[in-house]
Each structure stands twice: as structure tokens, then as C-alpha cells.
Amino acid sequence: MSRSSEETLVCQIIDEHATLTLGELCRSCGVPAEWVARLVEEGVLEPTPESPSTRWEFSVHYLPRVHRAARLEHDLGLNMSGIALTLELMDEIRSLRRRLDAIDR
Amino acid sequence: MEYKDYYKILGVDRSALDDEIKRAYRRLARKYHPDVSTEADADDRFKEANEAYEVLKDPEKRAAYDRIDPNQAQAQNSDAGFQPPPGWDRGFDFQGGGYTEGGDPSSFSDFFESLFGRNYAGGGGRRPQGFASPRGQDHIARVELDLEDAFTGGKRRVTLSAPEVNEHGQAVERARSLNVTIPKSVRAGQQLRLAGQAKSGANGGAPGDLYLEIGFKPHPHYRLDGADLILDLPVAPWEAALGATVKTPTPNGPVDLRIPPNSKDGKRLRLRGRGMPGRKPGDLYAVLRISLPPADNETARAVYERMAQEMPFNPRAHLGV
Questions:
Q1: pLDDT of residue B132
Q2: Which residue ranges does chain B devote to CATH 2.60.260.20?
Q3: How far apart, in whole angstroms, are the C-alpha atoms of residue B180 and residue A9?
Q4: Domains in chain A: how many in total?
Q5: Where are the CATH 1.10.287.110 domain residues in chain B?
Q6: Would you say residue A59 lies in a domain?
Q7: B198 C-beta neighbours (distance < 10 Å), count
Q8: Exposed end of chain A (fewer CB within 10 Å): N or C?
Q9: pLDDT at residue B266, as a whole number
Q10: Is B315 exposed, middle or buried (0-12, 13-18, 19+ CB in 10 A)?
């Protein structure tokens, strides 16, 4: 695959209301559908309320979260509840850091 | 090539038992995991620990590695560089051993490669047992932009490190630089998609998409709060007390801001629509910070003395003193 490094790539902003089907999400993260179903069971992500239970769709915002969850399982051997807890704590740390950053200046 | 002391990397004795090695690895993996760690060199340390564990957890690889005399190898390190002694791997067969849970083999060192080779048949991807997908996985990278980029848009050079397959069919960690057009009005937490810019799928499948997760670098003046911007705006005591119209910066250039009389320190004044751009632009909040002129000359001292005499004011009244 040759690609000129000077070529400028155009990117699309992903609409915040965009959704991914279960299949698209699995393909994107390289994980089986059963694994995503377990994340849903654990409350790590939620299908959009409009999507029927037979055809799950997910907000595109979950994409980085599912990638991160896959890394945590793969790299640290965490189980589902460990992944859920870690992601929650990471969210909390991030928002605390933001507040700290606002106070520090 | 440099000899790597895998025992030292994991911080264990050469005689360490398997579960000690596992414990040490798990501890380091948690400490340096790039998603979790804030250490500057976390990424490198994490890869190093993975590589060490890949060798030491496998009895065969470990035994072969143990045949290399560390003292001799370290000595070579400082001279011409390490070369494995001839026949060091006699009696071992690493073929098909593959890569197990350890990590991304494309990030392992030359040293590892020279000893154990690179066998991608079994484990090129992160999740070899995962479901067979015709298209490659997507890749997500976090990109930190300057706040101003959201106002102007325009070309940006973005550097990512991503595994790639070179002309010999080996996976290498390669820093990729891309020129990307950042659209105007991009917001923190938004994702930008670059279609087809991730790695290729297995068996010649189409490449996945590259997602850029947008964040903003801390700005020297503005703080970001959702779509709103917050600015600490210094004002003179008389501007706050008597009211004034002062110049205030905004990312789109300075504007006039009217300060009402008797404004207190910390008062927030809203500049509607002057926050982050977008379909629904955010607001800019100027937080007044009263700045005292120093009493460092005769005139200034005289003014403060007159205020002290003529203005009955106890700033501690609410403390009851």
C-alpha cells in the first residue's frame, strides 16, 4: 500500500446521533457479538432505546469505550466486572482531573 | 542489536517461579497500561514488559533464553552489540508456538525477533480467535488539537503509531504522519472518521476506518466547559466599582464588554455565542478577577491612604470580627 505522505485526508465529523449496528461495532473492535452482549449485560454500554431487542444499535460514542474494554481484557486479563469497574473509575478520574485543571489556573 | 535482560525488566530473580513471573508481569501491566497510566514512558514500558513475559512464561522460550550468558551478552552490548551464540536454540522448536495473550507482537524488539522470529501465521492480530471479519478492525487514536483549530479548521499534521506490514510481510510499529483536514466547529469528544485508513483486513479484506477522538490541549487563557469557554478577566478596582467598558479577548478576536457598576470579584459575565463554534455555539463566560495596583510609589500610597480614611469598609464583617 503506497501512500504519499503529503496527501491531505479529508475527515468526516461523526454525527453525534449516529448509531452502529451490533455487527458494525463488532467488526470495528474485532470482537465477537457474544462479548458485546456481555458488556451490555454488565451495563458498560446500552443499546439506543429505539432499537428493538432483536436488532441492537449503539451510539457511535461507545466506540472508543468498547475498544478500550477490549484492550483491558486482552492486556490485563480483566473479567467483565473488572472492565466495567475500571471504565467507571477512568471516567471519574478524567472528570476530576478536568476540575482540578480548572482550579489550578 | 541490544541484549535485553527480561528478568530485570520484570524485576524478578533468574530463579523465579512461574507464578512469581506472572505476578510481576501483571503488576507492571496494570501500572504501565497505556489506557490507565499517566507515566510519560508508559507505552514503552508496557511493550517491554509484554515482550519479557512472552519469553519467560513459555518454558521452552525461557530455557533457550537462559542459555545466553547475561554477563557476556551485557559486555557485548557495550561493544559491538549483541549477537546470539551459534546453536543457542538447538533442541528447541519455536515454530507454531505463536503469540499467546502477551501483547502485540509487532511491538517486540529486534532482540526478540532475532531469537524467536516473527510468526504471524498464528497471531498477527490482537484477537486471533475472534470472529473472522472480511474487513480489518478500526483504529482509534486520540488527537489533541489547539482550541483555535475548532474556529479556523484547516490542515493539521497528525502522528500516530500503528502496526503495519512491511514489504517482507513482517509487522512493524511505524509512526505514521497524516495530513488531515480538520473541519470547523469540531468539539471535544467528537470523533472524526477517515475511511479506509486503518490496517487491512485478513486475507486481503478491505482496511478498517481510522477514528480520531478529538481532545483539546489546555489553553493558556480559556478553559473548556462543554461548548462554553471560561476566561479569567482581570479588571481594575475602579472598573469593577464604577462600571466600565473594557476590551476582552475571544478566540475570534477582541470585543467590548460592559462591566456593570458594583461588580464583585468572581462575577461571571456572559458573552452569548462567543464560545465554541457549531450549530449551537457555546457561550464565553468572563469571570472578573479584581487586580490591585501595587502601592509602590508616593501617589499610589496617597490614594490608598485616602480610601482607608474615607471609605468605612470591613471586608471581614461576615466573619464576625
A1: 47
A2: 139-216, 224-310
A3: 5
A4: 1
A5: 6-123
A6: yes
A7: 23
A8: N
A9: 94
A10: exposed
Specify if A45 maps to a domain.
yes
State the DSSP string of B114-182. HHH---HHHHSSS-TTS---SSPPPEEEEEEEPHHHHHH-EEEEEEEEEEEE-TTS-EEEEEEEEEEEE
Which of A8-12, A14-18, B207-211 is modeled with the greatest confidence?
Answer: B207-211
Confidence at residue B212, expressed as pLDDT on a 0 to 100 scale: 87
- CATH code where residue A97 lies: 1.10.1660.10
What type of residue sits at position A3?
R
Q: Hey, are the CB atoms on B181 and A9 less than 8 Å from each other? A: yes
10 Å CB burial of residue A92 (0-12, 13-18, 19+) is exposed
pLDDT of amino acid B127: 42
**Residue closest to A78 by CA, chosen among B55, B29, B100:** B29
Contacts of A86 in chain B (CB under 8 A): 36
Confirm if B271 and B250 have CB atoms less than 8 A apart.
Answer: yes
> Which residue range(s) make up the domain with A27?
19-104
CATH fold of B139-216, please?
A: HSP40/DNAj peptide-binding domain (2.60.260)
- Asked if B136 and B87 touch (Cβ cutoff 8 Å), the reply is no
**CB atoms A11 and B192 under 8 Å:** yes
Classify residue A12: in a domain, yes or no.
no
Closest residue in B to A68 (Cα–Cα): B35
Burial A16-30 (b: 16+ CB within 10 A, else e): eebbbebebbbbbbb
Q: What is the mean pLDDT of residues A3-23?
A: 74
ipTM: 0.72
Whether B223 and A101 lie within 8 Å, measured CB to CB? yes
Does A56 score more than 60 pLDDT? Answer: yes
Look at B192 and A63 and tell me if their CB atoms are within 8 Å.
Answer: no
Classify domain B224-310 at the CATH topology level.
HSP40/DNAj peptide-binding domain (2.60.260)
A4 half-sphere exposure, CB direction, 13 A CA radius: 4
The stretches in chain B having pLDDT less than 50 are: 95-102, 119-133
Homologous superfamily of B6-123: DnaJ domain (1.10.287.110)
Please give the residue that has the higher pLDDT: either B132 or A15: A15
